[in-house]
Specification:
- The protein has 177 residues and is an alpha+beta fold.
- The protein has one helix and six strands.
- It has a domain at 70-177.
- The strands form two sheets. Strands 3-4-5-6 form a four-stranded antiparallel beta sheet, with no helix packed on it. Strands 1-2 form a two-stranded antiparallel ribbon.
- It is globular.
């Protein structure tokens, strides 16, 4: 395997961009309504209720499920990439922005240095030739990594990578033994 030397200016640019992304990610998580700012737990009923610490009115349907909450996903994308000569694939799901996708995955670090159930990485809009940059440095934990009171989707079986993805967020400090 040939080693490619990256000019210091490119490393500095990458580092600055990653630090800015991480600062914004942390700000979003700790925002007043971010999932690190959970202030209470409320049991919902069929009658809509408002809570001081959460926007909007909350209720369940007659069957006890929070209205609008679904765990059924379209999978409009498949990202193929190569690591050390091994072809790997991730099934991608719709992301926060209409043009973006999100890939849930586990890897050889899951449950060791990273959260066991999943991490997610944003897949930006493909270029004209259908290529994307899969930046695993920005792989993030979902709410279930921070609390047992959250539910998160599990990655499909094909998104269990047989390699170690050392980049991205690790097991949250609060959850480490």
């Amino acid at each position: 395997m040939a080693t490619q030397v990256t000019p210091a200016a490119e490393v500095d640019t990458f580092t600055a961009e990653w630090q800015e992304w991480h600062r914004l990610q942390e700000a979003q998580l700790s925002d007043r309504h971010g999932f690190l700012a959970i202030t209470s737990l409320h049991w919902l009923t069929e009658s809509p209720e408002r809570f001081d610490d959460a926007p909007g009115a909350w209720s369940t349907g007659a069957d006890g499920v929070v209205e609008g909450l679904e765990h059924v996903y379209d999978a409009p994308g498949l990202v193929e990439f190569e690591v050390d000569g091994q072809l790997l694939r991730l099934t991608a799901f719709p992301g926060k922005n209409p043009e973006d996708l999100l890939a849930l995955f586990t890897d050889a670090t899951s449950g060791v240095t990273t959260y066991a159930a999943n991490r997610a990485v944003r897949v930006p809009t493909p270029d004209a030739d259908a290529t994307v940059v899969l930046d695993v440095n920005r792989a993030v934990n979902l709410p279930c990594a921070y609390t047992d009171l959250a539910t998160c989707p599990l990655p499909p079986a094909e998104n269990r990578l047989p390699i170690a993805v050392e980049a991205g967020e690790k097991i949250p400090h609060e959850r480490q033994g």
